[in-house]
C-alpha cells in the first residue's frame, strides 16, 4: 500500500520500497539517481526554459512532472497513472501548484497510449512498475510502435527499466526498441552495466541522431556517476537478443530482496 512520510520532505513508499521523493518547496531537487538521469534527458531535449509537450506513463508522486513544470514553465504534461488510490493520495497530500500544466489521467498506460494523438509528445517518459516489475504489456514491439507513433519526429522516448546480470530483460528491450527506433542509448551506473548488482537503467530512443555528449557529462557528474552507452554499444550489449512481441512479452525480473529498499 502507498504511504507518505514527511520526515525528509515527502517520501512515498509502496510496500516498503521507495517510489517517489518530492520537496514541495524545491521541485528541482531530485533525490533518486534514476530520476536525475531522466531529468537530464528533459533538460537537454530543447534549449533551456522552452516549454515542451510531455507524456509520462507512470505518475507516482509526480516528481518528474513537477520538475519539468518548474524548469520549463508553460509545458503541457499528460500523466497516466493506473493506481486510483495513489492518485487520490497524492492529490490530497501533495497538491499541484496552480497552473502547473499537468493533467493526471487514471488509466492503463498501454490503453491510454494507443488512444493518444499521433506526434503529440516531444518526450515520452515511461516509468511504470507493477509492484517492482515493469509490466509485460510495456515491453513489446507493438508497444514500442505505439510509443514511436506518439513521439514527434526528432523527439525522445525514455524508459526507466531495472535488471541485473545476465541482462536477459534489458538486452531484449534494446533489441525490441531497436526494431522500431533508429537510435538508442543506455544510461546506467558502471557497476550495473558490469553485472555486479541489480539496478536501474534508462533506455533512450529516437528516430533522429542522439547528441549524447552533454548528457554523458551530466550523468558522469552526479553523486552516483552513470555511463551513457550510445552508437554501436547498445547493439553490442544486446547481441543475440531478439525483439519481443506481445504474445511472448514478460515483465521485468523480480529484484533481489532489498535491492530497492530504504533504511
Secondary-structure topology with pairs:
Elements: E1 2-5, E2 10-14, E3 17-22, H1 33-43, E4 53-57, H2 63-71, E5 76-81, H3 84-93, E6 102-106, H4 109-115, E7 121-126, H5 141-150, E8 151-163, H6 168-178, E9 183-188, H7 190-193, E10 199-206, H8 213-220, E11 227-229, H9 233-237
Parallel strand pairs: 4-5, 4-7, 5-6, 7-8
Antiparallel strand pairs: 1-2, 2-3, 8-10, 9-10, 9-11
Helix pairs in contact: 1-2
Q: According to CATH, what is the topology?
A: Rossmann fold
Q: What is the residue-mean pLDDT, rounded to a whole number?
A: 93
Any idea what the CATH architecture is?
Answer: 3-Layer(aba) Sandwich
> What is the general shape?
globular
Order of helices and strands: EEEHEHEHEHEHEHEHEHEH
CATH class division: Alpha Beta
Structural class based on helices, strands and sheet pairing = alpha/beta
Strand content bin: 25-35%
Main β-sheet, spatial strand arrangement: 6-5-4-7-8-10-9-11
Number of domains: 1
Keywords for this entry:
three-stranded antiparallel β-sheet, alpha/beta, eight-stranded mixed β-sheet, 25% strand
Describe the structure.
The strands form two sheets. This protein has an eight-stranded mixed sheet with strand order 6-5-4-7-8-10-9-11, with helices on both faces. A three-stranded antiparallel sheet has the order 1-2-3, with helices on one face. The model has no long low-confidence stretch (mean pLDDT 93). The protein has 263 residues and is α/β, with parallel strands linked by helices. α1 packs parallel to α2. The protein has a single domain, classed as Vaccinia Virus protein VP39 (Rossmann fold, 3-Layer(aba) Sandwich), CATH 3.40.50.150. The chain has nine helices and eleven strands. The chain is 29% helix and 25% strand. The radius of gyration is 17 Å and the shape is globular.
Amino acid at each position: 500500500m502507498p504511504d507518505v512520510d514527511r520526515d525528509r520532505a515527502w517520501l512515498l513508499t509502496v510496500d516498503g520500497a521507495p517510489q517517489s521523493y518530492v520537496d514541495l518547496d524545491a521541485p528541482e531537487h531530485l533525490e533518486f539517481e534514476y530520476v536525475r538521469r531522466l531529468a537530464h534527458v528533459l533538460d537537454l531535449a530543447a534549449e533551456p526554459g522552452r516549454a515542451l509537450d510531455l507524456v509520462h506513463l507512470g505518475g507516482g508522486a509526480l516528481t518528474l512532472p513537477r520538475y519539468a513544470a518548474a524548469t520549463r514553465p508553460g509545458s503541457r504534461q499528460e500523466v497516466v497513472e493506473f493506481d486510483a488510490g495513489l492518485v487520490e493520495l497524492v492529490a490530497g497530500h501533495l497538491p499541484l501548484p496552480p497552473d502547473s500544466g499537468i493533467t493526471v489521467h487514471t488509466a492503463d498506460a498501454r490503453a491510454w497510449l494507443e488512444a493518444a494523438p499521433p506526434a503529440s509528445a516531444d518526450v515520452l517518459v515511461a516509468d511504470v512498475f507493477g509492484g517492482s516489475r515493469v509490466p509485460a504489456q510495456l515491453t513489446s514491439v507493438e508497444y514500442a510502435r505505439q510509443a514511436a507513433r506518439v513521439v514527434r519526429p526528432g523527439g525522445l522516448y525514455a524508459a526507466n527499466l531495472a535488471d541485473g546480470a545476465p541482462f536477459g530483460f534489458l538486452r531484449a528491450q534494446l533489441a525490441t526498441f531497436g526494431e522500431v527506433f533508429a537510435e538508442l542509448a543506455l544510461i546506467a551506473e558502471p557497476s550495473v552495466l558490469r553485472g555486479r548488482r541489480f539496478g536501474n537503467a534508462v533506455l533512450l530512443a529516437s528516430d533522429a541522431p542522439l547528441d549524447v555528449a552533454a548528457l554523458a557529462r551530466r550523468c558522469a557528474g552526479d553523486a552516483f556517476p552513470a555511463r551513457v552507452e550510445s552508437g554501436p554499444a547498445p547493439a553490442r550489449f544486446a547481441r543475440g537478443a531478439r525483439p519481443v512481441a506481445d504474445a511472448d512479452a514478460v515483465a521485468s525480473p523480480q529484484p533481489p530482496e532489498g535491492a530497492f529498499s530504504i533504511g
